[in-house]
Amino acid sequence: MDKAASSRNVSKWADLHRDILAMIFHKLDVRDIAMGASRVCISWFLASHNKTLWNTLDLAKVQQVEEGLSLRIIMKKIIKFFDINETRQNLRYITKLSQGAPKNLFFNLDAYIQEDDLVFVAERMPNIEKLVLPRWCFQSKKSYQFAFSQWRNLKTLIIAHDNLTGNFVFQEVGMNCNNLTNLKYFGDLRKNTAKLIVSYLQSLRRLSLQCSFVRNDEVLLLITGLKNLRILNFSHCKELGGERIPNQEEITIGNLKQAAIQNYVILLLCPKDNCRVCKAQPKFCMFWSYGSKIWRNDEIKELEF
Questions:
Q1: Least packed by Cβ within 10 Å: which of 115, 199, 233, 260?
Q2: What is the pLDDT along the chain (305 residues), one digit of tens a residue?
Q3: Which InterPro entries does this one have (predicted)?
């Protein structure tokens, strides 16, 4: 009797309309759909191909691990960080079901993405409009060229850049992504980086440097050099001393405000002396860990995810 009742219950679930199943699947994360729900029965497998389920792929949720500082958890995090095969396996399962539908793709801040991973994603998800790339993104110029040549519809780019991984190829972005109007840069904004952004991303209207290491000289270059810029988020940044040139006045926040007014740019600042976010910031060595907790939020709504 129990087996018969169980069989009838399974049959009822399997007979649900696909649109109803899709509404239920929306409550799951992408891995639960790909690795779980899609394998229950043929009806669920077909429902898991609903394109609305795959509009946004938030891989950060897939890669979340336990918090804590025990040796077991630390070792688990290290193994998870370098488990490239797991990342590729997740991507393979997901792309089989999503079939090129995703428009938003978010990697975890500390995901470890190699060249083949980015090429694989770009080939199978050409319609990306909003992209979040991780800190550890080891790519050759060739892989970046291919990826951004596929993502010509890209409108919003959010990158966590570590100089240990080399320079980010803003030139390839600028050459291929004419619709890009929003950029969030999280990292150490150096003079070369600011020059590249000005040289190749003139279409930018919104730029966020939230919680980055910055120098006022480079920020001034962005304000005056990006001719279509309308909003610059300068909140919660760590200001570093710029290169001192003899007989040249130091660039201050006042200079940045004046330049913003002259160039019709809205400059978003936080009250440094009374800002809870800034007061909570740790020393340099722990800054990346701290940033990972808040970088999904932003004062510019287009750059939240």
A1: 199
A2: 455 444 445 556 667 777 788 888 887 877 788 777 777 788 888 888 888 888 888 877 665 543 444 444 444 444 454 444 566 677 777 887 888 889 999 987 777 777 788 888 899 999 999 999 887 666 778 888 999 999 999 999 999 887 766 678 899 999 999 999 999 999 889 999 999 999 999 999 999 999 888 999 999 999 999 999 999 999 988 887 656 566 667 889 999 999 999 999 999 998 877 888 777 766 554 455 556 667 788 999 999 98
A3: F-box-like_dom_sf, F-box_dom, LRR_dom_sf
CA atoms within 13 A of residue 84's CA, in its CB half-sphere: 10
Cα–Cα distances in angstroms (integers) from residue 138 to residues 165, 185, 230, in the given order: 6, 17, 32
The reply to whether 42 and 152 lie within a common domain is no
C-alpha–C-alpha distance, residues 113 and 122, integer Å? 13
The answer to whether residues 50 and 97 belong to one domain is: no
Partnered with residue 208 across adjacent β-strands are 184, 233
Can you give the CATH number for the domain in which 227 is found?
3.80.10.10
Domain that holds residue 109: 56-303
pTM of the model: 0.82
Q: State the greatest distance between any 2 C-alpha atoms of the chain, in Å, as a whole number.
A: 92
Residues 270 and 201 both lie in one domain: yes
- Cβ contact 222:198 at 8 Å: yes
